[in-house]
Specification:
By secondary structure, the protein is mostly helical. It has a single domain, classed as ABC transporter involved in vitamin B12 uptake, BtuC (Orthogonal Bundle). It contains 17 helices and 4 strands. Strand 2 and strand 3 form a beta hairpin.
Length: 351
Amino acid sequence: MSVDTPRTAPDPDSTQEMASPAAPAASASALSRFVGSSATRNLGLVIAFAVLFIVGVATGGDRFASFDNILTILRFASVIGVVSIGMTFVISGGGIDLSVGAIVALSSVWATTLATQTMAENTHWIVMVGTALLVGAACGLVNGLLIAYGKVAAFIATLAMLAGARGLAEIIAQRKTQIIRDRGFIDFFGGSVLGIPVLVIIFAAVAVAGWILLNRTTFGRRTLAIGGNPEAARLAGIKVQRQTAYLYVLLGLACGLAAVMLMARTTTGTSTHGQLLELDSIAAVVIGGTLLSGGRGTIVGTVLGVLIFATLTNVFTLNNLDTSTQAVAKGVIIVAAVLLQQRLASRRASP
Protein backbone atom coordinates (compact mmCIF):
# COMPACT_ATOMS: atom_id res chain seq x y z
CA MET A 1 0.00 0.00 0.00
CA SER A 2 1.56 3.24 -1.11
CA VAL A 3 1.19 6.49 0.61
CA ASP A 4 1.01 9.60 -1.52
CA THR A 5 3.50 12.15 -0.46
CA PRO A 6 2.13 15.64 -0.77
CA ARG A 7 3.93 17.75 -3.34
CA THR A 8 5.14 21.11 -2.19
CA ALA A 9 5.34 24.02 -4.56
CA PRO A 10 8.86 25.21 -5.23
CA ASP A 11 9.90 28.29 -3.41
CA PRO A 12 10.07 31.14 -5.93
CA ASP A 13 12.92 32.74 -4.03
CA SER A 14 15.02 29.57 -4.09
CA THR A 15 14.30 29.06 -7.80
CA GLN A 16 15.44 32.59 -8.49
CA GLU A 17 18.61 32.00 -6.47
CA MET A 18 19.38 28.84 -8.46
CA ALA A 19 18.79 30.46 -11.85
CA SER A 20 20.42 33.78 -11.18
CA PRO A 21 24.08 32.63 -11.40
CA ALA A 22 23.44 31.22 -14.88
CA ALA A 23 22.15 34.50 -16.26
CA PRO A 24 25.36 36.50 -15.79
CA ALA A 25 27.39 33.56 -17.14
CA ALA A 26 25.22 33.38 -20.25
CA SER A 27 25.39 37.12 -20.81
CA ALA A 28 29.17 37.09 -20.28
CA SER A 29 29.52 34.26 -22.79
CA ALA A 30 27.39 36.12 -25.31
CA LEU A 31 29.47 39.25 -24.76
CA SER A 32 32.70 37.31 -25.29
CA ARG A 33 31.36 35.83 -28.52
CA PHE A 34 30.32 39.28 -29.69
CA VAL A 35 33.67 40.85 -28.83
CA GLY A 36 35.56 38.00 -30.46
CA SER A 37 33.48 37.91 -33.64
CA SER A 38 35.07 38.83 -36.96
CA ALA A 39 32.51 41.59 -37.55
CA THR A 40 33.43 43.27 -34.27
CA ARG A 41 37.16 42.95 -34.95
CA ASN A 42 36.74 44.48 -38.40
CA LEU A 43 34.60 47.27 -36.96
CA GLY A 44 37.35 47.99 -34.46
CA LEU A 45 39.88 48.18 -37.29
CA VAL A 46 37.64 50.54 -39.25
CA ILE A 47 37.31 52.78 -36.19
CA ALA A 48 41.09 52.69 -35.65
CA PHE A 49 41.63 53.60 -39.31
CA ALA A 50 39.14 56.47 -39.05
CA VAL A 51 40.85 57.81 -35.92
CA LEU A 52 44.24 57.57 -37.60
CA PHE A 53 42.86 59.40 -40.65
CA ILE A 54 41.55 62.19 -38.40
CA VAL A 55 44.96 62.45 -36.74
CA GLY A 56 46.53 62.69 -40.19
CA VAL A 57 44.22 65.51 -41.21
CA ALA A 58 44.82 67.31 -37.91
CA THR A 59 48.62 67.08 -38.17
CA GLY A 60 49.12 67.13 -41.93
CA GLY A 61 46.22 69.25 -43.09
CA ASP A 62 45.71 69.49 -46.82
CA ARG A 63 48.96 67.68 -47.49
CA PHE A 64 47.53 64.52 -45.93
CA ALA A 65 43.95 64.83 -47.18
CA SER A 66 44.89 65.58 -50.80
CA PHE A 67 43.87 63.10 -53.48
CA ASP A 68 47.48 62.66 -54.60
CA ASN A 69 48.55 61.72 -51.06
CA ILE A 70 45.70 59.20 -50.77
CA LEU A 71 46.94 57.58 -53.99
CA THR A 72 50.46 57.57 -52.54
CA ILE A 73 49.20 55.69 -49.47
CA LEU A 74 47.38 53.17 -51.65
CA ARG A 75 50.40 52.60 -53.88
CA PHE A 76 52.59 52.04 -50.85
CA ALA A 77 50.01 49.69 -49.33
CA SER A 78 49.61 47.67 -52.52
CA VAL A 79 53.06 46.05 -52.44
CA ILE A 80 52.88 45.21 -48.73
CA GLY A 81 49.26 44.16 -49.19
CA VAL A 82 49.96 41.51 -51.82
CA VAL A 83 52.62 39.91 -49.61
CA SER A 84 50.33 40.17 -46.58
CA ILE A 85 47.54 38.29 -48.38
CA GLY A 86 49.95 35.41 -48.99
CA MET A 87 51.23 35.64 -45.42
CA THR A 88 47.65 35.32 -44.16
CA PHE A 89 47.41 31.85 -45.68
CA VAL A 90 50.73 30.71 -44.20
CA ILE A 91 49.97 32.00 -40.70
CA SER A 92 46.40 30.63 -40.86
CA GLY A 93 47.95 27.26 -41.63
CA GLY A 94 50.11 27.43 -38.51
CA GLY A 95 53.32 28.59 -40.20
CA ILE A 96 55.45 31.73 -40.47
CA ASP A 97 57.78 33.14 -43.12
CA LEU A 98 60.63 35.52 -42.32
CA SER A 99 62.10 35.47 -45.83
CA VAL A 100 59.49 37.39 -47.83
CA GLY A 101 61.57 40.55 -48.10
CA ALA A 102 64.60 38.64 -49.35
CA ILE A 103 62.47 36.70 -51.85
CA VAL A 104 61.10 39.99 -53.21
CA ALA A 105 64.67 41.29 -53.60
CA LEU A 106 65.90 38.15 -55.35
CA SER A 107 62.87 38.10 -57.67
CA SER A 108 63.38 41.74 -58.62
CA VAL A 109 67.10 41.25 -59.29
CA TRP A 110 66.65 38.09 -61.35
CA ALA A 111 63.87 39.71 -63.41
CA THR A 112 66.02 42.75 -64.23
CA THR A 113 69.31 41.11 -65.19
CA LEU A 114 70.77 42.02 -68.54
CA ALA A 115 69.93 38.59 -69.94
CA THR A 116 66.30 38.74 -68.80
CA GLN A 117 65.78 42.28 -70.08
CA THR A 118 67.37 41.41 -73.42
CA MET A 119 65.03 38.45 -73.77
CA ALA A 120 62.12 40.71 -72.87
CA GLU A 121 63.15 43.25 -75.53
CA ASN A 122 63.24 40.49 -78.15
CA THR A 123 59.85 39.10 -77.13
CA HIS A 124 57.66 40.90 -74.56
CA TRP A 125 58.04 42.41 -71.10
CA ILE A 126 55.85 39.59 -69.78
CA VAL A 127 59.12 37.61 -69.63
CA MET A 128 60.22 39.80 -66.73
CA VAL A 129 56.93 39.21 -64.94
CA GLY A 130 57.16 35.45 -65.49
CA THR A 131 60.75 35.37 -64.24
CA ALA A 132 59.85 37.17 -61.01
CA LEU A 133 56.90 34.86 -60.39
CA LEU A 134 58.94 31.72 -61.07
CA VAL A 135 61.76 32.82 -58.77
CA GLY A 136 59.29 33.64 -55.99
CA ALA A 137 57.47 30.33 -56.41
CA ALA A 138 60.77 28.41 -56.42
CA CYS A 139 61.86 30.03 -53.16
CA GLY A 140 58.47 29.27 -51.66
CA LEU A 141 58.76 25.66 -52.81
CA VAL A 142 62.13 25.29 -51.14
CA ASN A 143 60.69 26.67 -47.91
CA GLY A 144 57.67 24.39 -48.16
CA LEU A 145 59.68 21.24 -48.82
CA LEU A 146 62.07 21.94 -45.96
CA ILE A 147 59.24 22.64 -43.53
CA ALA A 148 56.69 20.04 -44.63
CA TYR A 149 58.89 17.11 -45.63
CA GLY A 150 62.24 17.99 -44.06
CA LYS A 151 60.61 18.66 -40.68
CA VAL A 152 62.65 21.85 -40.29
CA ALA A 153 61.03 24.44 -38.05
CA ALA A 154 59.42 27.20 -40.10
CA PHE A 155 61.37 29.84 -38.20
CA ILE A 156 64.72 28.20 -39.01
CA ALA A 157 63.94 27.32 -42.64
CA THR A 158 62.70 30.78 -43.56
CA LEU A 159 65.50 32.46 -41.62
CA ALA A 160 67.97 30.48 -43.74
CA MET A 161 66.09 31.53 -46.88
CA LEU A 162 66.22 35.15 -45.72
CA ALA A 163 70.02 35.04 -45.57
CA GLY A 164 70.46 32.89 -48.68
CA ALA A 165 68.08 34.78 -50.98
CA ARG A 166 69.41 38.18 -49.96
CA GLY A 167 72.99 37.00 -50.44
CA LEU A 168 72.22 35.48 -53.84
CA ALA A 169 70.54 38.72 -54.90
CA GLU A 170 73.69 40.65 -53.96
CA ILE A 171 75.86 38.22 -55.93
CA ILE A 172 73.71 38.41 -59.06
CA ALA A 173 73.39 42.21 -58.96
CA GLN A 174 76.98 42.67 -57.73
CA ARG A 175 75.52 45.08 -55.16
CA LYS A 176 74.43 47.39 -57.97
CA THR A 177 71.03 48.81 -58.87
CA GLN A 178 69.71 47.42 -62.15
CA ILE A 179 67.68 49.93 -64.18
CA ILE A 180 64.64 48.73 -66.14
CA ARG A 181 64.88 49.79 -69.77
CA ASP A 182 61.59 48.42 -71.08
CA ARG A 183 59.16 51.36 -71.25
CA GLY A 184 56.24 49.05 -71.99
CA PHE A 185 56.66 47.39 -68.59
CA ILE A 186 56.91 50.72 -66.77
CA ASP A 187 54.00 52.30 -68.64
CA PHE A 188 51.70 49.34 -67.99
CA PHE A 189 52.32 48.85 -64.28
CA GLY A 190 52.89 52.55 -63.64
CA GLY A 191 49.69 53.57 -65.39
CA SER A 192 46.14 53.92 -64.15
CA VAL A 193 42.60 52.92 -65.13
CA LEU A 194 39.90 55.55 -64.59
CA GLY A 195 42.27 57.38 -62.29
CA ILE A 196 43.02 54.31 -60.17
CA PRO A 197 46.67 53.15 -60.29
CA VAL A 198 47.23 49.70 -61.77
CA LEU A 199 49.16 48.68 -58.65
CA VAL A 200 46.09 49.39 -56.50
CA ILE A 201 43.89 47.43 -58.90
CA ILE A 202 46.27 44.46 -58.64
CA PHE A 203 46.14 44.63 -54.83
CA ALA A 204 42.33 44.73 -54.90
CA ALA A 205 42.18 41.78 -57.30
CA VAL A 206 44.58 39.73 -55.15
CA ALA A 207 42.55 40.55 -52.02
CA VAL A 208 39.29 39.42 -53.65
CA ALA A 209 40.90 36.24 -54.98
CA GLY A 210 42.45 35.57 -51.56
CA TRP A 211 39.10 36.02 -49.79
CA ILE A 212 37.39 33.59 -52.15
CA LEU A 213 40.21 31.06 -51.85
CA LEU A 214 40.25 31.18 -48.04
CA ASN A 215 36.52 31.34 -47.37
CA ARG A 216 34.82 29.60 -50.28
CA THR A 217 37.07 26.73 -51.34
CA THR A 218 38.28 23.39 -50.04
CA PHE A 219 41.81 24.77 -50.12
CA GLY A 220 40.88 27.42 -47.56
CA ARG A 221 39.04 24.97 -45.31
CA ARG A 222 42.02 22.62 -45.35
CA THR A 223 44.35 25.50 -44.51
CA LEU A 224 42.32 26.50 -41.45
CA ALA A 225 41.96 22.87 -40.38
CA ILE A 226 45.73 22.33 -40.47
CA GLY A 227 46.34 25.54 -38.56
CA GLY A 228 43.78 24.59 -35.91
CA ASN A 229 44.92 21.00 -35.34
CA PRO A 230 47.35 19.32 -37.77
CA GLU A 231 46.87 15.84 -36.29
CA ALA A 232 43.08 16.05 -36.47
CA ALA A 233 43.38 17.31 -40.05
CA ARG A 234 45.60 14.33 -40.93
CA LEU A 235 43.15 11.89 -39.38
CA ALA A 236 40.39 13.56 -41.40
CA GLY A 237 42.21 12.64 -44.60
CA ILE A 238 43.92 15.95 -45.37
CA LYS A 239 47.42 15.62 -46.81
CA VAL A 240 49.01 17.98 -44.31
CA GLN A 241 52.52 17.97 -45.78
CA ARG A 242 51.36 18.67 -49.33
CA GLN A 243 48.98 21.43 -48.20
CA THR A 244 51.74 23.06 -46.14
CA ALA A 245 54.06 23.08 -49.15
CA TYR A 246 51.30 24.63 -51.26
CA LEU A 247 50.91 27.46 -48.75
CA TYR A 248 54.56 28.46 -49.00
CA VAL A 249 54.49 28.26 -52.80
CA LEU A 250 51.43 30.54 -52.74
CA LEU A 251 53.29 33.03 -50.56
CA GLY A 252 56.30 32.80 -52.88
CA LEU A 253 54.07 33.69 -55.85
CA ALA A 254 52.76 36.66 -53.89
CA CYS A 255 56.35 37.77 -53.27
CA GLY A 256 57.13 37.46 -56.98
CA LEU A 257 54.12 39.61 -57.85
CA ALA A 258 55.09 42.14 -55.19
CA ALA A 259 58.56 42.27 -56.74
CA VAL A 260 57.02 43.12 -60.11
CA MET A 261 54.98 45.90 -58.50
CA LEU A 262 58.04 47.24 -56.66
CA MET A 263 60.06 47.13 -59.88
CA ALA A 264 57.39 49.19 -61.63
CA ARG A 265 57.20 51.71 -58.79
CA THR A 266 60.96 52.24 -58.55
CA THR A 267 61.93 51.27 -62.16
CA THR A 268 64.78 49.23 -60.64
CA GLY A 269 65.74 45.80 -59.41
CA THR A 270 68.07 45.70 -56.43
CA SER A 271 69.11 43.47 -53.57
CA THR A 272 67.93 46.12 -51.10
CA HIS A 273 64.28 45.78 -52.12
CA GLY A 274 61.93 44.40 -49.48
CA GLN A 275 63.86 45.53 -46.40
CA LEU A 276 61.76 44.79 -43.27
CA LEU A 277 58.88 43.62 -45.47
CA GLU A 278 58.51 40.56 -43.24
CA LEU A 279 57.85 42.85 -40.26
CA ASP A 280 55.26 44.91 -42.12
CA SER A 281 53.41 41.92 -43.55
CA ILE A 282 53.30 39.92 -40.30
CA ALA A 283 52.23 43.05 -38.43
CA ALA A 284 49.37 43.70 -40.86
CA VAL A 285 48.20 40.08 -40.64
CA VAL A 286 48.28 40.02 -36.83
CA ILE A 287 46.59 43.41 -36.51
CA GLY A 288 43.93 42.18 -38.93
CA GLY A 289 42.91 39.39 -36.56
CA THR A 290 44.61 36.30 -37.96
CA LEU A 291 45.79 34.08 -35.11
CA LEU A 292 49.56 33.63 -34.90
CA SER A 293 48.93 30.09 -33.65
CA GLY A 294 46.90 29.30 -36.78
CA GLY A 295 43.37 28.09 -37.34
CA ARG A 296 41.79 31.46 -38.03
CA GLY A 297 42.46 33.90 -40.85
CA THR A 298 40.76 36.96 -42.25
CA ILE A 299 41.56 38.61 -45.57
CA VAL A 300 39.36 41.63 -44.83
CA GLY A 301 41.19 42.18 -41.56
CA THR A 302 44.54 41.88 -43.31
CA VAL A 303 43.57 44.53 -45.88
CA LEU A 304 42.47 46.87 -43.08
CA GLY A 305 45.71 46.15 -41.21
CA VAL A 306 47.75 47.02 -44.31
CA LEU A 307 45.86 50.28 -44.77
CA ILE A 308 46.34 51.20 -41.11
CA PHE A 309 50.10 50.66 -41.26
CA ALA A 310 50.44 52.44 -44.62
CA THR A 311 48.50 55.42 -43.28
CA LEU A 312 50.53 55.40 -40.07
CA THR A 313 53.77 55.46 -42.08
CA ASN A 314 52.46 58.31 -44.19
CA VAL A 315 51.48 60.34 -41.11
CA PHE A 316 54.94 59.80 -39.61
CA THR A 317 56.59 60.83 -42.87
CA LEU A 318 54.55 64.02 -43.21
CA ASN A 319 55.46 64.92 -39.64
CA ASN A 320 59.18 64.30 -40.27
CA LEU A 321 59.44 61.40 -37.80
CA ASP A 322 62.34 59.05 -38.52
CA THR A 323 62.05 55.39 -39.44
CA SER A 324 63.27 54.30 -36.00
CA THR A 325 60.22 55.89 -34.38
CA GLN A 326 58.01 54.17 -36.94
CA ALA A 327 59.60 50.80 -36.13
CA VAL A 328 59.04 51.32 -32.39
CA ALA A 329 55.38 52.20 -32.99
CA LYS A 330 54.86 49.12 -35.16
CA GLY A 331 56.48 46.92 -32.53
CA VAL A 332 54.20 48.28 -29.82
CA ILE A 333 51.13 47.76 -32.00
CA ILE A 334 52.13 44.15 -32.74
CA VAL A 335 52.59 43.34 -29.05
CA ALA A 336 49.25 44.97 -28.19
CA ALA A 337 47.50 42.96 -30.91
CA VAL A 338 48.98 39.65 -29.72
CA LEU A 339 48.03 40.40 -26.11
CA LEU A 340 44.49 41.19 -27.24
CA GLN A 341 44.32 37.91 -29.18
CA GLN A 342 45.45 35.97 -26.11
CA ARG A 343 42.90 37.78 -23.96
CA LEU A 344 40.03 36.97 -26.31
CA ALA A 345 41.22 33.35 -26.70
CA SER A 346 41.29 32.86 -22.93
CA ARG A 347 37.77 34.26 -22.63
CA ARG A 348 36.45 31.87 -25.27
CA ALA A 349 38.22 28.94 -23.63
CA SER A 350 36.83 29.68 -20.17
CA PRO A 351 33.42 28.09 -19.37
